[in-house]
Amino acid sequence: MSTVAGEMDHNDHHHHAPSGFTRWLFTTNHKDIGSMYLWFSFIMFLVGGSMAMVIRAELFQPGLQLVDPHFFNQMTTVHGLIMVFGAVMPAFTGLANWMVPLMIGAPDMALPRMNNWSFWILPFAFAILLASLFMEGGGPAFGWTFYAPLSTTYSSDSTALFVFSVHIMGISSIMGAINVIVTIMNMRAPGMTYMKMPLFVWTWFITAFLLIAVMPVLAGAVTMVLTDKYFGTSFFDAAGGGDPVLFQHIFWFFGHPEVYIMILPSFGIISAIIPAFSRKRLFGYSSMVYATAAIAGLSFIVWAHHMFTTGMPVAAEIFFMYATMLISVPTGVKVFNWVATMWRGSITFETPMLFALAFVILFTIGGFSGLMLAITPVDFQYHDTYFVVAHFHYVLVSGAIFSIMAAAYYWLPKWTGHMYDETLAKWHFWCSLISVNLLFFPMHFAGLAGMPRRIPDYSLQFADINQIVSIGGFAFGLSQLIFLWVVIKCARGGEKAPAKPWEGAEGLEWTVPSPAPYHTFETPPEVK
Amino acid sequence: MAQQHEKYYVPASSPWPIVGAIGLGLIAFGAGHTVIDMKNEATDGWGTNVLLGGVAVMIVMLFGWFRDQINESMSGLYSNQLGHSYRQGMSWFIFSEIMFFAAFFGALFYARVIAVEWLGGAGNNAMTNEVLWPAFEAHWPLTETPGGTKSGEMGWFGLPLYNTIILIVSSFTCHFAHVGLEKNNRKQLTLWLGITIVLGCIFLYLQGAEYVHAYQDLGLTLDSGVYGNTFYMLTGFHGLHVTLGTLMLIIMFLRVIKGHFTPDNHFAFQATSWYWHFVDVVWVCLFIFVYIL
In the Enzyme Commission scheme, what number(s) does this protein have (chain B) (predicted)? Predict the structure, then answer.
C-alpha cells in the first residue's frame, strides 16, 4: 500500500492542470467541474433558446404556418425542461462548484469524484431527452409539467425515455446538492462560522437542502407516470380509484420548492454584487439569512396555488392563497435590504452591477405578478394564460438568468485572469434589458386579455402584441451571442486581472490570485 | 472546527465517474426502449441488451471505484474530516431516499383519504359519483375500483407480520454486529452480521412468496386499481432497497472476513448499518399504513 500512498502524495503536490481531453473526463477538480457545468448550461441555454425561437416564429402571426401543433407542443415542453434542468440548475451548480470552496476556504468539494459523476451524467440525460424528439411519434409534448393524463393516456411512445432522462437529471441534482451541503457543513476554514459565510454560500446551503428534499419526489412522480402509462397502474386514473389531480399535487410538491431552487442562489449572487459596487456592507446580513430560510420553509406549504382551478375545497384554496402571500414578506425583506445597501453608497455601474440592478427591479415585477396570481379568485382569470408565462419568465429570465449573467461578469476575472471587455458587456446588458422587456412585458396584456398559453394559434386581436413579443424574443436570443463573444474573448486574453478586480468586493475568493490557481486553500486560511 | 488542520484528501483524478456516467446513460436509454418495446410487444430486444450492457458497465464501475476507495482508506489517506464528509453524505442520501418513499406514501394517503372518498361522493362530489360512477361505493382497501376491477385484500396477519418481526430483529442483530466491531470483538461482529444477512434473505424470500400468494390466490395485482398500485409500488421499492441493503451487508461480510475495518475506521460498515435501519423503519411505516390500517 505504501506505493499507492507515495503516488497520491506526489499527485497532491502538483499545482498544474493536467492536459489532454482526459483532464475533463477524469477530473476531480472543483474548478474544472464548475467550468464544465457552466459551459454545459450555456450550450443548453442556446439549445433551449432555439426552441423558444421556433415558438416565437410560429406565434409571429395568427394561424398555423411554420410547424404543426404537435411539434409546437414538443418545443414548448422541451424548451421548459431544458431551461429548467439543463440551463438554470446546472449554471447554479457550476457557480457553486467554482465559488463555494473558494468562499469558505476549502481545498475542493467534499466528495470530488462524485462531483465529476454528477456532472457527466447530465449530458447523457439531455442526449436521451433530445434524441426522443426524433423518435416515431415525437418526443414529450405534454408541457414541462407533464400533467397526467397528457403524459400517460395521451403521450407518445417515447415517454419512457423522458422518464428515465428525468431520473438521471434528478440523480445528478441530488448528488450535486449532497456535495454542496456536505462541503458547506464540513469544509469551512477555521473561524468561518455559519453566520460569517457569504450569502451565496448560505443561499446554496438552503437550496441544496431543498434539492435533496424534493428531487426524489419528482422521481416518484415520473415513476408513477411510467407505471401508469406502461404497467397498467392507475395512480392518475379515476377508473382505478386514482385521480389526475393527485399528479398535480405530487408534481407541485416538487415544483414549488423547485422554483425557489432556481432563485435562492440568485439572491446570494445579488447579495454579493450590490455591496461590492455600492462600496458598503450588505444591509441586514442576518435578516437575509433568516429570510432565505423562511422562503425555503414556506415553499413546502404553497404548492397548490398552481392548482386553484382544479376544484379543491374552498378551505384549501384559502390556505394556499394566504400561505403564498406570506412569502412576499421575506422576499420583501430581501428587496428592501438590497435597496438599503445601495442607499448612500458610492455606486459605480460596471456590468455585474447593471445586471444586479436590473435583477432587483425586474424580479420584483415578477414577484408582484406572482402576488396577483396568488389571489385565488383572480387566478381563475389568469390561469393558463400568457399572464402566467409573463410572470415566470420575469422571475426566471430577468431574475435567475440575469443573476447568472451578473455572476459570470463578476467572477470572470477570477476564473480567466483577464478583465472582460466592458464595452461589449454593456452592449450585452442593454440589448438584453430592452429586448427582455419587449419580449415579456406585453405578454401580461395578452394574458389579461385571455390569450391561452401552449397553443400554436390565436385570435386575431392578439396579433400586434405577439409580433412585438416575437421581435423582442429574437432580439433577446441574438443578444446572448454577444455574451458568448465576451466570454470567449475574456478566456483567450485581455487586460490582466488583479487578485481583487472590484474595489468594494469582499470575501476569501479575492485573496487568491487571478486566475485562481488549480488548487487553492490546501492549507485552510484563518478567518477572523 | 479543530479538525480542519488535517490534510483533506482530494484524489488527483479518477476514470470511474465517467465510466459510471456511461453506464447510467446506457441503463436509462436501454430501460426506456425496453419499456417501450414491452408496450408495443416488439421482440427484437436491443433495448434490453443496452440495458444489460449498462448494468455491466455499472458493476465494473462500482468495483473499480470502491476498490480505489478501499485502497486509499487502508493506506491511511483518509482524515477524520473526510470521514465526516462520508457520514454526512450518507445521511443526506438516506434523507433523499426517505423523500422518495414520501412521494408514494403521499399518493397512498391522497388516494385513500381524498380520491376514493370523492369518487364515492364525499364532500361536494355527490354528482361525480351519481353521474360518472353510479355503482361505486367508497371503501378501503379498494377491492373494487370505480371501473369495476375486482381484487382481493392483503391482511396483515401471517407473512407480513412474520416479515415485520424478521426485519425488526435484523435491525437489532445489525446493531449487535456494529457493537462487536466497536469493541473489536470480531467473532461477535461476524456472527451477528451473518445472522442479519440470513434474516434479510428470509425476508426477501417471504416477500416473494407473499407476491405469489397475492397474484395467484388473492387476485391482487399491480394493475388492479390504486390499492394494488400503492401496495406493489411501496412494497416493491422497499423490497428493492432490502435487496440492495442485503448486497451491501454481504460485501461488508466479505470485507470483515478479509480483516477490514477497525473500531474507529469503518465508514462503509456504518453506512450499511444506517441503510439497513432506514430500510427497517420504512417497513414499519409500510406495515402500519399499507397492511394494518
Answer: 7.1.1.9
Q: Mean pLDDT score of chain B, rounded to an integer?
A: 93
Provide the 8-state DSSP code for A400: I
Please name the member of B29, B84, B99 whose beta carbon is closest to the beta carbon of A213.
B99
Q: How large is the ipTM?
A: 0.95
β-strand partners of A418: A496
Mean pLDDT of B275-279: 98
The pTM score is 0.95
Kindly report, residue by residue over B242-268, the tens digit of the pLDDT. 999 999 999 999 999 999 999 988 999
Number of domains in chain A: 1
Q: Do B111 and A242 touch (CB under 8 A)?
A: yes
Residue of chain B whose Cα is closest to the Cα of A174: B96
B117-122 contacts, C-beta under 8 A, 24 or more apart: B118/A243, B119/A238, B119/A241, B119/A243, B119/B146
Q: Nearest by CB to A185, which of B20, B88, B145?
A: B88
Domain B82-292 sits in CATH at 1.20.120.80
| Chain A partners within 8 Å of B259 (Cβ) | none
Residue A239 is assigned to a structural domain of this protein: yes
Amino acid at A220: G
Q: Which of A120, A157, A234 sits opposite B17 (nearest CB)?
A: A120
Please say if the pLDDT value at position B135 is more than 70. yes
Q: A154 is in which domain, residue-wise?
A: 30-511
- What's at A168, amino acid-wise? I
| CATH class belonging to B14-72 | mainly alpha
Q: Is A507 on the interface with B (CB under 8 A)?
A: no
How much is the average pLDDT of A180-191?
96
Asked whether the beta carbons of residue A178 and residue B96 sit closer than 8 angstroms, the reply is yes
Q: Which chain B residue has its CA at the smallest distance from A22's CA?
A: B15
Question: What is the band of B113 on the pLDDT scale with cuts at 50, 70, 90?
Answer: very high
Show residues of chain B in contact with A517, CB under 8 Å: none
Sign of CA dihedral A340, A346, A352, A358: positive
Using a CB–CB cutoff of 8 Å, tell me whether A1 touches chain B: yes
pLDDT band at A447 (very low <50, low <70, confident <90, very high): very high
A215, A226, A241: residue with CB nearest B225:
A241
CA distances from A178 to A57, B117, B269 (A): 41, 39, 20
Would you state the cell numbers that stand for residue A98, as one nine-digit string? 467554482
For A58-70, give one letter per residue: b (16+ CB within 10 A) or e: bbbeeeeeebeee
Partners of residue B150 on adjacent β-strands: B144
Give me the residue spans of the domains in chain B.
14-72, 82-292
CA gap A180, A33 in Å, rounded: 13
Which positions in chain B touch A229 (Cβ < 8 Å)?
39
Please name the residues in contact with A32: beta carbons below 8 A apart, sequence gap of 6 or more: A17, A23, A24
Least confident of A211-215, A520-524, B163-167: A520-524
Average pLDDT over residues A268-281: 98
Report the catalytic residues of A.
79, 108, 144, 172-173, 256, 258, 260, 271, 305-306, 331, 334, 453
* CB-based contact, A250 to chain B, within 8 Å: yes
Alpha-carbon distances of B268 from A103, A440, B12, rounded to whole Å? 30, 52, 22
Q: Is residue A11 part of a domain?
A: no
